[in-house]
Amino acid sequence: MPKRPREDEGSSEKRPTKKPQNNKTQDAVPLKAFTPRPNAPAPAPAEIDFPRGGGSSFTPLETKAIRAEAIKELNEEQIFQASCDLDKAAVGTKNAESDKDRLRIEHLNYKRLLPGQRILCQIVQILPLALVVSLPHQLLGHIPITHISSLFTERLEKVDGGGSDDGEEDNASEDVEMADGEAQASKDLPDLADMFYAGQFLTAIVEEVRPAGARGSLDFSKSRDETTKGAKRVELSIAPEKVNAGVAKRDLVPGFNISAVVKSVEDHGYILDTGVAGVSGFLSLKEASKGPLPSSSLASSSPSPRPLSIGQVINATVTKVSENGRTVTLSIDPSIIRSATVTELSSIGSVVPGTLVTALITSVLSWGLNVQLLGFFGGTIDLFHLSLSGTDEVDDKYKVGQKIRARVLWDVSSNNPKTFVLSTLDHVKSKSKAAKKEVEKGKSVKDVFPVGMVLESVRVRRVESEWGLVVEGPDGVQGFVHISQVSDEHVPSLSASTGPWKLNSTHRARVIAFSAFDGLLQLSLKPSTIEQQYLRPSDLSVGEILKGTVKKLEADLGLFIKLSEDVDGVVWPLHYSDIRLKHPERKFKEGTVVKCRVLSVDEERNRVTLTLKKSLIESDLPLIKSVDDATAGLVTHGVVAKIMPKLVIVNYFGGVRAIIPIGECSEEKLQTAESVFTLGQVVRTRILSIEPSAYGPPRIIASAKQAAPNFVPATSIASIEIGNVSTDARVVEVQKDNVAITLLPLNVRALVSINNLATARGVSAAKLRTDLHAGDEMADRLVVMSKNVDKHFVIVSAASGKKKAQPKNDDDLPSIDFSALKEGDIVKGKIVSHSTKQTGGTLGCTVRISNSVTGTLHPLDTSDDFRKNLATLAQYDDASSKPTPSTSNLSSIPYPPPIGAILDFAVLSIDRPHRKLVLSTRPSRLETTKQVKVVDPEIKSAAELTRGQKVRGLVKSVADAGLFISLGRSLHGRVQIKELFDEYVKDWKSRFSVNQVIEARVFKVNTDIGQVELTLRNRDLSEQSSVTFDDLVEGENVDAVVKKVELYGLFIEIKGTKISGLCHKSEISDNKKADVASALKNFKEGDPLRARILSVDAEKRRVNFGLKPSYFVDDPAVAGDDEEEEGEEEDEDTAEHREEEDDSNDEAATASENDQDDEDGDEDVDEDEDEDEDEDMEEDLPSANFASSSKPSLPSTMLELRRGFEWNSKGAAADDGDSDDESSDDDEADTGDAIKSRKKKKRHEIQKDFTIDMHTKAPESTDDFERHLLGSPNSSYLWIQYMSFQLQLSEIDKAREIGRRAIGAINFREEQERLNVWIARLNLENSYGTEESLEATFREAAKYHESKHMHLRLAAILEQTDKHEQAEELFKRTTKKFGQSSKVWTGFGEHYFRRNMFEEARKLLPRSLQSLDKRKHLKTISKFAQMEYKLGDPERGKTIYEGIVDSHPKRLDLWSVYVDMEAGQKNIQSIRAIFGRLFQQKLSSKKAKFFFKKWLALEKSIGDEEGVEQVKAKAIEWTQGSTSAVQA
Question: What is this structure's pTM?
Fold first, then answer.
């Protein structure tokens, strides 16, 4: 198809311009204007530019000459026009497409829509305040309610306006009358849906065209779909006084279509305003009844015409004109309007859009027709409005001179003279909805191909180079693809013969809209649109779980989530989390990826509501997505939306609501629901009933009480017969005169009189009232006397004593003499129920021994080995336990036994007043004559337990503070959270359940209050410290261990206890100038040390410790047997300080050695010859460091120092020989020398430096790594090895923490070292983390290092781990962000090449050249050529390099790379040819030498001897030639 020329192209088919002669002729027509009046006065002699009264400044002679010239030109023009007409008649249709007569066929767009332009439109949507209309060529517009007509606007203003001033008493009656009138006007004012219907054609005039994105003056209600968004740009009016402003009165003839407005309602019809001056219309009631039905009537069950309303605009046809021409009779019969046509009009303004005319084809073009309508006016018809099939060509169906029927669409007012655009489409000519081809019976194209549908194959039928594609889909349905929708990349123009979108090419497409006016599907070929999961909100389903990106947070309004390119969702504040967030902005930052679930989808408002509540997202209960899903008995989750005093409103999915009465909120009796629920709380509910409502959706009643997992539905009251007997019941509440009970196992509420029950038991009512308690089990014989179905309870009566003496024993239980029962007796009983109330939380059994005697069975009294009988108790389901009469021994069946089982029981204790027994089924109790192995003995009190003893029990409850374990009938133990596991476990609650068998060890026992502390950890409990908080004494020295190291000091725990306290950093050294911060770094958790208690705060239970060496001068645990002199003064001289410190350490070592000579006298320890190193280490490292690094067989020497740790030898004994202290005598000095010599030797035998091989031995533990890092904190290699070490131990979180520490510890100037750590962290998250953690780490790394470099590094990591899709997505983001980088494009290309995606890789090269600077083009092209050699097609790479060296022959570096690439292919012939061309250029001696050596090496490696000789010969030849050239 030929390309349609643009407006600025010099085509022969451009819009014709008028000849100068025509202009002159038009100016010369009114000749009388130039003729002077007979009595005109002579002109003034002076020339006047602007003579008064419109006179002329010409002289009579000049005027006469002008007249003659004008007449001459007029005659010439007429002669010329006549000759042209003769020529046209002679040539016929050959010149039909001449430049003079041909009109340019243009498509309508928003730029060509001008205010004042009239256009035909079709209603597609009726909103409360506007009509949304479809315009030709897939445009949209809207008609505000204020632009219907001036009469309708006046009615709106009356309804909206207020009454007169209330303060004017004189006008009070007028105010009442006006208010009544306004009320009546508001009642009678019709909605837009009462006056118009979808699919109706209207003639409108353009009022305003706004820029894209501009806000309109009218709010489109609450609808925000794409249709209404696009319609905001164009504002139209259908007011007849504007639309019909140019219609001539004489053109109102029968068959003329005109829009009119109802002006008044008369007895026989309606008076209409046509908008034509001096002409009014009349519509009879009979004709009015033939009009189309509005939308409101179509929606009713019995459609019927509605009476017209004042201000309503109608489309009508003139059927009769009065004799005086002032009144026209109109008809609104759709059949008459569709067929009405005009054949002659006198004025161009009378050609109103919507008029059906007969047009004469004057020119047939490849992209449409030029026509002449009504014999005078020019018009065009474009391809979209020609009745063509998919394969028809224009010139095959239409010929010049052919007459066709068409309807006027709009006028092109910019043309002079004005022209018109017409349509021959059937649905436009018939003014009906576009049906096109019905591919399914009873369904239109829009219904069969809804928005969002993907069409697997559409074929291109026409190409509009600058506009788009016309395609043919399934079943011949036509569609249009705008040029902006053909590709994700910018496409400047389309070609019909070449390219991916040429004629007859097929593509995959997606429906994005439907143009009602054009009857076309609007499609998109963009891969991003086709693959997009959600194109519009209706694509999402309620309850769907998906991921979105935080777009914006408005604290008071909500959180906006981006779900796809075109769909956003909102999260209301109540749904941010399961708990109320005080600072949501800290959690939801822009760009954060969140997991959410669709709560509701409002297609009308184009809104998607989401929830971020984890309990709703992970809920596995069935969802209520609509009212139809709500069925009685359904259990589902809801969210508390409103709390009222007597009820709670909960929201479900799909916008469904339910009411929970206060009686159904909890098992307990509540005064207000606020005590149980909070706003936004997720509750488990059960639907009770659905009640229809006449005012809205059905009313749903729900219950939170009956939704509990252990809830047993009550038996229907209607099924209970009067006279039924029940023998099992549970007390719910003891009232003044009655007892509220629950009949078991029916779970029915009942009332029994206290007096009646007391009489039946033979006790007084007062005593019975005090004996009964809520939860007590009753074994009385209860008879149903009456029932209340509405309130769901029954009235029962206890059997009298006479009947009770002779009860009917249905279970054949033997009768017993209760008074003769004693502990240890064996009795038979029947299991009647399972309960937790009588057994302290664990699942026990209620046993009926006889009709008046009951018993309780604790689960720990059922077996001598809990593992055998109680292993499955945690999985017990009460619903599965049904009455099953049986007789067996409980030791042979799993616990609990089924209801109805008859077993043997041993009596443990007797409650004679209440006639209750405590029973046991332990074999050791039942079979007293046999030797039974007891694995789990009975534990009656805490006094029977000892520290470290292993015990078994049942989990009573799982609380926030830990586990509570039942060890016996009345004995319970506690396991704190810290005693559950040896390692940290985050979700520890999921590992335990109620009634689970647990084996633990006794950690602590308090026999006074019966408290038992248990532990599940594997640690030594043999040592038991007797020290308590009250035993601590200030000034006492104790053994302790380091619990935690902080910047401000150490937290120390007294060894063997749980008592801990703080040693502030000021209490570590006696030297105030010491570097305490460095010393703190050397302490590790678990290091043993000796500490002094400085203060004890009994009220706050706080202890403060001190580690100063001066605290341990008299401590025998440190000093040993040797006593040290005190009171010596410290010399300030540095050298003497070193010697004094050395001597002090010698003495300390001697004392330490003397204490352990008996145990370790033969221990050999390597000597440290470097004295200075020893001294420095002892000065810098605290004492605990040596203690923690000593061998296990050696006790800590530093803890046994007599004076503790010294910073600068303060208070230490000095060498008398080197000291200036005069207080010491000679004897002491001599003795000191001998002692020091001996101590120094012993110190080297005992003390070993464990850091001597730190630089040669690889770290093997956490402590090793920490010591290495103290010396090399900037070594990324060491940090990364540390991370790897933790990963080998599966400590991923610790490895992450080490990575973060490394970033903070490495000096900021060491950029490469920090970069290495960042890359290691990215590798860690890529291998062990999630996509979210990887993205977060990557974003953080990009802030600290060059963003482009980090993008490429992460892409390389993803490639190495075969995450190619993620790597490709990252490369796409990188090229958009760093399009100016050649390295980014070449990296992306290499990624595609390595995946064998050669076409995608090659497409990147032209794309990159569009983004890169010119100076980088050559480098990029060379890189892509190298990739072709290595990974793609070497021939293609060779072709590229040939182009490079031809265009840049002086770039010798590129020649060299070219040779290397060919060498890689071992193509010696090609290499020789390249070198031959290279040496034809002018080269320097140095460069020539380089290339000759390169050539020679290649000949030797991949060539032959002959080639070697040729290279040598050429080198000699070139050298001689260059020498002679220099000499010349």
Answer: 0.44
